[in-house]
Structure formats: C-alpha cells, structure tokens
Design goal:
The complex is a heterodimer of chains A (140) and B (77). Chain A is mostly beta strands and 140 residues long. Chain A contains one helix and ten strands. Chain B is 31% helix and 26% strand. The chains are: A mainly beta (140), B alpha+beta (77).
C-alpha cells in the first residue's frame, strides 16, 4: 500500500487498483490516476482523489439518480480508450460542483465514461447544447 | 505561434494525419474543414475553456461538504 497527503488527511491506497484516465481530464491532461473513495451510508455521492496532484479531487454521482432520461453511449474511439468492446461495459458518471452557497450543480455537458472491467475512464464533451456544465438538481 | 495566410480552398497539415482546409470566408466567419483520426478530439476553444474552468471549480470543495450534502441529497428512486 502507498499513501498520499491530501486536504482530507493521509489516504492509503493500492497503486494497482487506481482509476486510470488515459487522456487526463479536459483541460487538465496531467490528472490521470485516481483513488476511488466509496460513498458513506449508500448516499448518491462519492469522490475520487487524484494521486498525480493531491490538490485535485472530484465529487461524482451516477446522473441516473437525478436525471432519468440522461444517457451517454460511447462511440468507437471512446470504447477504444476504455479498452472495451461492448458499450454495456460502460457507465456514465457526472462531476458535481459544490459552490460556497452549497447550491450544488451537476456537469451534464462533460460526463465521465467509466468501465469497471478495465478501471479506465474518459471525460467527454456532449455536443448537444441542451446539456449545461452547471445543471441544478431537479426539485423534489 | 506560427501564423499562416490561406485563401478559401487552401489548407495545411498538422503532422501526417491532420488536414485543415479553409472552406470559405464570409462576413467575418471562416468555415474550416478538419480531417483527423477519430481518436483526436476536436473542441471549440470556448467549449474547452468552459469545461476546464468547471473542472477546476469542481475540484475546490471542502471535506465537510460531502458529509453535509450526503444527508440532504436523496436519490429519486
């Protein structure tokens, strides 16, 4: 096991079990390897901690928790990046932004495609203008 | 930065596998055609900048956020 110092304290992780972004995140190409921190108490949010730069951590959620008709299908080059054959091996995750006022938003314009089989992930941009980087959660 | 002058119909290459062609220039807008391998992602500059900015903003949360939010946000199902 290895350890990393973050603003959340010391985190211990298994370097052979990291979530790998072969191209990094959009605009942040050096952020390639992340520790996945599972949710507490079966909540909808979990987070990933980058190991290349400890300052970067992201809160993620399964957008299907909030947006029932939202789904992203990987194209051939995206399946290639994830090293999967079948699009059924790909899951969609969304990045959550928590501003100072705690009115959180979900980035539906640039989701993360993730394959549990290969532990690889990519961030993609949806060309469809109907999706916003700051989408409020639906009112319940 | 390399600066080139091109007319409509002319183009240039980036490496061996990316070809950029100027299609037309009309009332301040230039239409460009790009031939590139499928795995080369092409972004409009302002879209790329916006996503980068959102990524940076999303990374700046506080450790207390996830605990306080976890209690207030519920899944739909």
């Amino acid at each position: 096991m290895e350890t990393i110092q973050t603003r959340f304290g010391t985190i211990e992780y298994d370097a052979s079990n990291l979530l790998h972004f072969p191209a990094g995140m959009i605009g942040l190409p050096n952020l390639r390897n992340f520790i996945v921190i599972p949710p507490k108490k079966d909540g909808p949010l979990f987070w990933i901690q980058n190991v290349d730069d400890p300052d970067f951590a992201f809160i993620l959620t399964d957008p299907a928790n909030f947006f029932l008709d939202y789904s992203v299908v990987p194209d051939d080059s995206e399946k290639n990046s994830l090293k999967i054959e079948d699009e059924k091996d790909c899951y969609t995750l969304s990045i959550v932004t928590v501003p100072a006022d705690q009115n959180i938003t979900v980035n539906l314009a640039a989701p993360i495609l993730y394959s549990p089989q290969t532990n690889r992930a990519i961030q993609v941009v949806l060309e469809d203008n109907k999706y916003q980087t700051k989408t409020p959660l639906p009112q319940t | 930065m390399l600066v080139l002058s091109r007319k409509a119909g002319e183009g240039f290459l980036i490496g061996d596998d990316i070809t950029v062609t100027i299609i037309e220039s009309k009332s301040g807008t230039i239409r460009i055609g790009i031939d590139a391998p499928r795995d080369k992602k092409i972004f409009r500059q302002e879209v790329y900048d916006k996503i980068k900015e959102e990524n940076v903003e999303a990374s700046r949360w506080n450790p207390v956020d996830i605990d306080s939010l976890g209690g207030t946000i519920k899944k739909r199902n």
